[in-house]
């Protein structure tokens, strides 16, 4: 998939260019190839094309000269903008949400995650069908009649609405089953259970950390959204307390709202957690900005007040020896307990377990 990326630079801030670089990584995650960028400095999006009409003509010329197969915008486009752009450029147009949803649809494995992705895609597709029928059909027989394209679009709309309702009902059943499973786990004998959720920006190393903490073999890859299915494993930190550790889907800036909404069944693990381990890529020079993104999403999930430990991962990319961890100053920027680790090398694991133990003691109300 030869892709041309397009971005509007409204503020000129560095984060806009970083978002474009991230879009390139998302293209790579679906096996695509970025042939280049086109940017435009503009104070606000154009309601018809998102970029200006002159820039649309430039995009068309670049597409024709490079044989680009798809044009991807680093934004959430309206249905009319997508339609206008495709008509003017003559190629498929995608936005950031389309790309993220494509990644998710290819990567998910569990039944729950597949349902959630299907829901997100259908929710995103539905408004784009309105008005689409007229474009598909130029065969209307007169005033008050419908052409074949409009009839086809209407059938598709009805099917999508019915399917969305079916998926929502299935997801509600799954949420009920999970709540019952949690109750059974928590009421099993005298055993006390503490629920810990791993959250963080995508590719921060959450899956590697889960493997280090629990020994569970999970897929680890250096790319966005390497793993999308929620994974829960257990570890005993005390003789009578089981710690359930759940790895959740990684976050990104500009995460499609439909995706957050449809993934509530998975992200419910965050809402139900007693403790959050916020995993941060220490080697990423933009780590602080990404912390802010994760915090905003936690706020959307009503989980921003939960106890948190900040876990600065990938220390092996910053220092050469484990003993040099103590010289790193990044944890000083955080308001809560922070530890530095390398999930790959196993550095700092003792300090992390100690921090978890202290938080568990606080949650339990007394040191056992």
Please outline what is shown here.
It contains 12 helices and 10 strands.
Q: How many helices in DSSP terms?
A: 12
Major pleated sheet: 6 strands, mixed
Please state the average pLDDT score: 83
Largest sheet: spatial strand order: 6-7-5-8-9-10
Structural class: alpha/beta
Rg over CA atoms, rounded to whole Å, is: 23 Å
Going by CATH, the homologous superfamily of the largest domain would be P-loop containing nucleotide triphosphate hydrolases
Total of domains? 3
Count of strand segments = 10
Report the span from N to C terminus.
57 Å
Unreliable runs, pLDDT <50, ≥5 residues? 133-145
CATH class annotation of the largest domain = Alpha Beta
CATH fold category name of the largest domain: Rossmann fold
Q: What is the CATH architecture annotation of the largest domain?
A: 3-Layer(aba) Sandwich
Proportion in β-strands:
15-25%
Following the backbone from N to C, one meets helices and strands in this order, namely: EHEHEHEHHHHEHEEHHEHEEH
Shape: globular
Helix content: 40-55%
